[in-house]
Amino acid sequence: MTPVLMFLTVAGITYAYARRTHRNGNSGKFVVSGAVSFTSGLVTAFLLAVHIASVWLRVAAGYASLAEFEQFASLALGAAILIPGLLCVSLARALTRGELHAQKRTLAAAVVILGLTLPLSVFQPLAAVIATLAASNIGVLLTSRTNLGLSEPAAW
User: Is the pLDDT of residue 148 over 60?
Assistant: First the structure.
């Protein structure tokens, strides 16, 4: 029941975001790009914030020490995935306007998320969900109207 509620919540948030941005006169392809980025970033940020909070609670309750490598590595990995997730959320509005710099930064953030969560997806089911969302974000960004693959190279 909980996965169904999570899916419906995410679908509702995505629909509301896409509808609001499309009403503002943005192109449909850019609205989809912004909505996918917003959704994948929001789910990633939420799950990783809960992960970081649970690690801190284990340390605070005395079940683990922050000096232990496992706890420190878990916090560091959580922060390394949380920051690109927040970047995807913060750049979603610029994506709906079709700004190329936002597409490049969001693509880089999605690649980082995918690279960090894909190896974990073997033994963590929620990592597989995050990796799937990051892969869909990459796919939508690469097929967007400004097409990052065909854009002009940056000036040196």
Answer: no
